[in-house]
Structures are given as C-alpha cells and as structure tokens.
Amino acid sequence: MSAVVENVTWRRMLSPTGNTGDAVFRILMLLVALLMVGIVVAMVIALATDSMLSIRQFGFSFLTSQRWDPIKGEFGALPFVYGTVASSLIALLISIPLSLGIAIFLVEQAPHYIARPVGFLVELLAAIPSVVYGVWGIFVLAPFLRQYVEPALAKWFGWLPLFRGTITGIGLLTGGIILAIMVTPIISAVVRDVLAAVPGSQREAALALGATKWEMIRVVLVNGAPGIAGAVILGLGRALGETMAVTMVIGNRPEISASLFEPSYTIASAIANEFTEATGDLYLSALVELGLILFLVTFIVNGIARLLVWNVTRRTGGVARA
Amino acid sequence: MANYGNADRMRRATSGLMTTLTALCTLLAVSALLIILTYIAWQGIGSLSFQFLIDRPRPVGEGGGIGNAILGSLVLLLISSAFGLPLGICVGVYLSEIGRGRVGGAVRFLVDTLTGIPSIVTGVFVYAILVLPMKHFSALAGGVALAMIMIPIVARTTEEMLKLVPHSMREGALALGAPQWRVIIGVVIPAAAPGIATGAMLAIARVSGETAPLLFTAFGSRFFPTSLNEPIASLTVQIYNYAISPYDEWHAQAWAATLVLMTLVLGINIIVRFLTRKKF
Predict the structure, then answer these.
(1) Closest by alpha carbon to A140, among A237, A39, A245, A51?
(2) Is A46 a domain residue?
C-alpha cells in the first residue's frame, strides 16, 4: 500500500502531467544536471587523492615554507602564494578605478549610439585569448616597461623598496599590468549590469534635489555597492587563476622579493611550467596540491562573488555576464 | 543670472572633472585593444604565407609552418563540441524548463562557479582522470578538458535563450495536448535555436583560445595528427612554445600564428555580435 503511494508521488514529482515520456525526459535532464555536481565532487576527490603524498609529507608547512627545491625534494608553496596574491592585487589596484570609470561612462554618460559599439570593443578585450596577451606581453609590454616606465618609477619612487632592484621588464609588475588589462573587461561588464539594475528613480531623486551629475553617480554607486564588490571579487577570482599570460611575463622564479621589478612565480604558472617536467611522485603530488589550493580558493572567491552580484541584479532580472 | 557661491563652483568643477575621467578610462581601454590588435596584424602579416599555413614545424632555419597545429585545433574543437554542446544544452534545458526548485538553484550556482574555475585546474583534473590511467597524452584528453570548460558557458546561454521564449508558446502547445517533453523539443528549443547556436559559437571561440588545459592533456606534437589516441598539436600551445623559445625565427612564427588565432576568435565574436544585434 505505502509502496504504491510512494510510487505515485515519485511519478507526480517527476512528471506533473502523469506522462511516461515526460518522466523519462525529466530524469534524463536531471541526470545531466547532476553530472555538473558530479564533476565538482570528482574534481575535489581526484585532486585530493593525487596530492595526498605531498599533504602527508609536508602538512600545513606546505603553505608556510619558502623552499621550493625539487632536487632535494623540498616543497613549500609560499613564494607561489605570494606571487599569486601580489600580482592579483596589482591588477585590481589598476583595474578597479579603470573599470568603474568605463562602466560609469557607458551606463550614465555616453549616448546609446556610442555606448553600444564602445561597450562591444571593451568586451572584445575579454575575448582575446590568454596566450595572445602573453605574446604581446613578452614582445611589446615588457620591453616598453623596461625602457620607459620602470626607470621612471625607480627615479621618482626609488625611495620605496617596491621600486628598487634590477630593471628587466620581466617580473611582478609586468604580470600585474597584463592581468589588469585582462580583468578590466570582466569587472566593467558586471559593473555595467549592476549600475543598469539601479532604479532610475534613484537618479531622478538625486537630480531633483539639485545634485550635480557626479553627485548623482555617487548615489548610484552607493546603491550598487554590493554588486560592485561582487564584480571586483569576480575579477579577483579570474586574476588568481590566470595562467598563460602571467607565466610568460612574470619571470617564474620562486622567490619572495619586496621589489615589483624582480621576477616572481604564481601557483598557476608553477603548474603550467613544471607539471610535464615533474620527476618523481612527490614533485607531481606537490604540484597537484597547488592545483587543489587554487581550485578551493577560486571556488570560494567565485561563490562569494556570484552571491553578491545575484542579490543586486536579481531584482531586475538582469544577467551577470562573464 | 544666479550668483553661484564658491562651494557650488567646486561641485560643478568636480563633476566635470570626474565625468571627463570616466571618458578617459574608456578611451584607455579601447586604445589598449586597438594597440594590441594593430601589433598582432603588423607583426603577424610579415611571416604569413600559404606554405606557412599548410606546413608542419621544422627545425630553426628551415621555415616550417602551423598546418598540423591548425588541423589539431580543429580536431580538438570537434571533440570538445561533440561532448560539450549536447551536455551543455541539456543542462540549460534543465535549468530553464525543469529545475525551478532548490536543486535547480544549486545546479545553477555550481555551473556559474564552474565558469570561474581556472582552466589550468581543469587540465590537472583531466590529467588525473584520463592521462594517468591511459599512461599517455592524447587528443581525446585535450578535447575532454576543453569540453569541461565549454559545458557551463553553453548551459547558461542556453538557459537565458530558453527563458526568452514566451510562455504563451509553451501554453499553446500544452493546450493542444502535447506532453511537456514534446513541447520542449518541438516548440521551445526550435524557437530559441538561433540564440542557442550563437551561445555555442561563443563557447567555441572561448575554448579555441585556451592553452593551459592542453599543456598536459593534448600536450602538442610536431607532426600531423594520425589518431585521437596520441598527443596532438594545437595553435595555442604552438604559439606558447614558439614565443618562449630563444629563436627570432620562431618568434616571428608565433606572431603569425597569433594572427591566425585572433582572426578565428575575433571573427566568431564579431559574427555573433552582428547576428544578435537586434536582440540586445
């Protein structure tokens, strides 16, 4: 008796119309959707299993040790963590004002016939493949920074340890700048959606009270603040995991240096560079553990960003891109 | 004429200054794009020739080309589309038509978060589940890695496109007695087909520029592909290897290959924009 009831409720749940074809179709689609969940779970399990050797060997000191010496079998990830965080912060420092400016210009100021094509051009920056940024970074940006920008920074701000050291054009600063160009279109696209989701009545109210255009824009920015924070965190997530372009310009030396001119190394570029050359199980396992760390960090960062952006754009049904 | 005070003049000046600055930000971004594109065109066109497009790589000093890499990239795109497009579209159908409750919300959140997972991590994952058991790099592993990047993109664009289909069409078909699955396959998906297709094209453009997930799945090769079960060359990995090499000749070839890749990627993006300009 109860089995029959259960059977009926199951069928009701799967197919409100009571049609067998519907039930089959719904189960199929549900299975594919659950495959997504399966992929995420499988990623965690596979990465954790393959890095077990390194986790057992080094434990928490993996994150605090500065020594990365494959020959002696010592693996500490601190230089990579530092390089990843530092290059991403440089990128955000440049990119946040830039993308806010772009989004404000496109949403609040530019007339429609300018905003649409220009907005498309900015979005095209996001379509350029990472390796192409890398090629441009090696052959154009790095020499340019070496010849003009870095000597000037050393001359004016040389009293700061940040801008001391050998000028090579390849290093943390170059990596940060390349990343900034790459995340700007992503952040500005989401900020555009967020600003567009702020109700027009807010703008009208500010203007009616005698606010200037800029003061009105500040009201809009305050209104969209959580969404803007989400956009920035989304950009951060992208910067943390960006691989090819950074690998090609950051110098790939596992050392922590106060200078922005010195070579550095990121988690992603360490994996890209050393994975196929890794000899020995422990070396490979340490690299997979780097991948696991990167996965967990970007997963959390992206999750937070999505929640923030959703909360703002959901009200108007806007869709956050990228 | 009103007599503006000092404070008022300041406010106006600030407003003018800030609004000009935002325009400058936009100008900066657009010029970055134009500078990058001009450089690629200018540097790339010099080494581009028909021979370059069909030849395979040769040792330094003997010319060579990217024919095998172009073919390899196409093979990888075919494999990834074969897995990625159907699965992505199914997930999109689920999100738009079926999963409206808590499960749907969770899947949508995971799919969104998956788009942000670094592609190098996808590469490590596919290495762990395919390359290690098979004991060698292969085109198949590369294609699967690209498919995993494709699925979330296709899923979300498909979902958005299906949601644009008016409810009256679904109701009309249901009222005629069609079961839900017939309505979805026969009415909703065909109505959204152009949008789904453009989403698929954008996903293909996106993965055709991916390098990181291919480094230790498809690996690369200096020969034309003969089987899906062996390492295969791709445009992006070839560009990377040539760009970081110490030879000027290979640098020139990297620029030329970059021009080819950019033509493909930007071409798809511009075509998609042209096709969808009425809708957005």
Answers:
(1) A245
(2) no
The answer to whether A273 contacts chain B (CB < 8 Å) is no
∠ CA B249-B265-A189, nearest 5°, is 125
Q: Could you name the CATH architecture of B71-276?
A: Orthogonal Bundle (1.10)
| Same domain (yes/no): A120, A8 | no
Alpha helices, H only, chain A: 2-14, 20-50, 52-58, 61-64, 78-104, 112-127, 130-136, 142-144, 150-157, 172-197, 200-208, 213-223, 225-241, 244-249, 267-274, 281-313
Q: Residue A64: which CATH number?
A: 1.10.3720.10
- Residue A271: alpha-carbon gap to chain centroid: 17
Domain boundaries, chain B: 71-276
CB-CB neighbors (< 8 A) of A19 in chain B: 179-181
Contacts of B263 in chain A (CB under 8 A): none
Task: Test B236 with A294 for CB contact under 8 angstroms.
Answer: no
Same-domain check for residues A126 and A269: yes
Residues A72 and A24 in one domain: no
Amino acid at A275: F
In-domain check, residue A47: no
Q: What is the DSSP letter of B149?
A: H
* A177 and A32 within one domain: no
Q: Which of B138, B87, B95 is nearest to A39 (CA)?
A: B87
Residues B185, B39: contact at Cβ < 8 Å? Answer: no
Q: Best of A30, A104, A131 to disrupt the B interface by mutation (most B CBs within 10 Å)?
A: A131
Domain that holds residue A12: 2-37
B100 touches chain A (CB under 8 A): no
A158 and A19 belong to one structural domain: no
Q: Half-sphere exposure (CA, 13 Å, Cβ side) for A21?
A: 8
Across the 322 residues of chain A, what is the mean pLDDT of every consecutive 10-residue run?
52 66 90 93 96 93 92 93 96 97 95 93 94 96 95 91 89 96 96 93 94 94 93 95 96 92 95 91 95 96 89 59 38
What would the pLDDT profile of B61-94 be if each residue is shown by its tens digit?
888 899 999 999 999 999 999 999 999 999 999 9
What digits encode the pLDDT tens for the residues B134-169? 999 999 999 999 999 999 999 999 999 999 999 999
Candidates A11, A12, A29, A220: best to mutate against B (most CBs of B within 10 A) is A29
Closest to A53 measured CA to CA, from A278, A288, A264:
A288
User: Is A113 inside any structural domain?
Assistant: yes
- Indicate whether A62 and A22 sit together in one domain: no
- Whether residue A7 sits in one domain with residue A137: no
Count of structural domains, chain A: 2
**Is A321 contained in some domain?**
no
- Chain A interface includes B206 (CB < 8 A): yes
Distance CA B171, CA B163 (A): 14
A83 in helix, strand or coil? helix
B238 Cβ contact list (under 8 Å, min separation 6): B57, B66, B69, B220, B254, B257
DSSP A263: -
DSSP code, position B58: -
Chain B residues near residue A110 by CB distance under 8 angstroms: 23, 26
- Touching B: A residues 84-123, CB under 8 Å: 97-102, 104-106, 108-110, 118, 120-122
